[in-house]
Amino acid sequence: MRVFRFIILIALIIPQNGFAQAEVPVEGRNYPGISVGYGFGKVFPTNSFVKGENMAGKPINGIRSLSLKMLWQNPGYKSWQKIYDIPYYGIGISVGDLHNPLEIGYPISFYGVLGIPLIRREKLELYTELQFGVASNWVTYNAHTNPMNIAIGSGITAHASVGLRAFYHLSEKVDIGGGFSFSHFSNGGLDRPNYGINIGVPSVDLRYLFGGRPEIPEPEMPDDADLKREFIITGTYSRYQTIQDTLDMYYFTAGGLSPYYLWHNSEVFKSGIGMDLNFLTGLSSNSMGAPGSYGWENLTLGIGYQFEVVFDRLSIVGGIGNYAVHKLYKSFSRLYQRIGVKFYIMENLYAGVNVRAVSFGTAEFMEFNMGYRAWSADRRRKPQ
């Protein structure tokens, strides 16, 4: 397979050319590495297409994958690195083979990587690894040529993964590793059908550290930290479709404002309450799915709880809310959820993307957003 051969070629070229650099002082030195991994796992039977209702007439129940990651691990130059006990982070590319290329293709993922240590021993380390990015190269639903693929409705989807990885040190620069990850692929309702693909993949890794491994200091929590409260307001926009199982020619838009008041529970975790006010043009569509006239019925209001896990300028965002006003749901009878990431472009200006869902599994739409935060009074933590 050409993509597999391409990843192997890049893995061979990068060690020769990718990290040539002048000697860097220890206090500012980066510790780069490269990891090549192979996985062989299971596709979970979460929709009829992967269960076997496809043109091949066979379940799509297995996947093999090849991955290449560029990683860095610095010995606590910044506060967040110390708090997370010196994680590794980087970028990755992987390609998957689901054994049905005519109907699903060979998906290729590009993503960011973050590994947070759980256990460290002299020769053995255990990490939680998070990945978030995009996947492409799908063969998608088509009413004429691929009518049974209700899993993937667009050529680009989100790639989200969480897993455990263990590494054993073979030498100062070489690690062998293994682990298990759970991954989800979905476009968040941008194009339907969109039941998504869910996989569980055991895998093995070979990791090479170009500059050796950094000395890991004792975990250090900043003293006398400034714990703040902040008010944020986020503007969101999305395009989405409403019909789930068949070809839908109509697209709708979702726009909204979300003011939230957050408390900094620690240096790397904040949470709070707020509301989500949205205007969904799809709520006034007619029985055939075509757009209708717009009015008050297109407005929705949700009361929600949101949290952020902070990694320098990057945050993982999650939350849960309840619809107080929604044309299709009774008041306070339907929960909604969001999960995504945001990045602070400037100190108080951020941009991000979330997947918004109901009933913990059905995507409503993808929220592309920009926002602003205003600081309020500090809550200074007294030294212990």
DSSP helix fraction: under 10%
CATH class of the largest domain: Mainly Beta
Structural class: mainly beta
> What is the strand content?
over 45%
Number of domains: 2
Stretches with pLDDT under 50, minimum 5 residues = 2-26
Helix and strand run: HEHEHEEEEEEEEEEEEEE
**Cα shape:** flat
Biggest sheet, spatial arrangement of strands: 1-2-3-4-5-6-7-8
Number of strands: 16
Which architecture name of the largest domain does CATH use?
Answer: Beta Barrel
**Largest beta sheet, briefly?**
8 strands, antiparallel, barrel
CATH topology of the largest domain: the name is Porin
Which radius of gyration do the C-alpha atoms yield? Answer: 23 Å
Mean of pLDDT: 87
Q: Count of helices?
A: 3
Q: Roughly how many Å apart are the termini?
A: 58 Å
Kindly describe this structure.
The structure is a single chain. By secondary structure, the chain is mainly beta. The protein folds into two domains: 2-12 and 30-209, Porin (Beta Barrel), CATH 2.40.160; 226-380, Beta Barrel (Porin), CATH 2.40.160. It is 7% helix and 54% strand. It contains three helices and 16 strands. The protein has helices spanning 2-17, 48-51, 79-83; strands at 32-43, 62-72, 88-97, 105-120, 124-138, 157-169, 174-186, 197-209, 226-240, 252-264, 269-280, 299-311, 314-325, 335-344, 349-358, 362-380. β15 (349-358) and β16 (362-380) form a beta hairpin. The protein is flat, with a radius of gyration of 23 Å. The model is unreliable at 2-26 (pLDDT under 50).
